[in-house]
Amino acid sequence: MIDALIESLAASRKAQHITQAQLAERAGLSRMAVQRTETGDVDPRYSTLAEMARVLGMELIAVPSALRP
Question: What is the separation, in whole angstroms, between the first and last Cα of the chain?
Fold first, then answer.
């Protein structure tokens, strides 16, 4: 599930023609944090994913597993 989320964030970044460095700057993160998140080298914090999503015009929503299809 987390992999699909990270793939969606990376795809959105690319579709908006935003570099990892630009995303990092706008989100208050290091470029390396963005790179390592996108490549799966780290298990990112929720706050990191939420800031990346915010910059990309997305919103993270937690859904209980019992309500997921």
Answer: 13
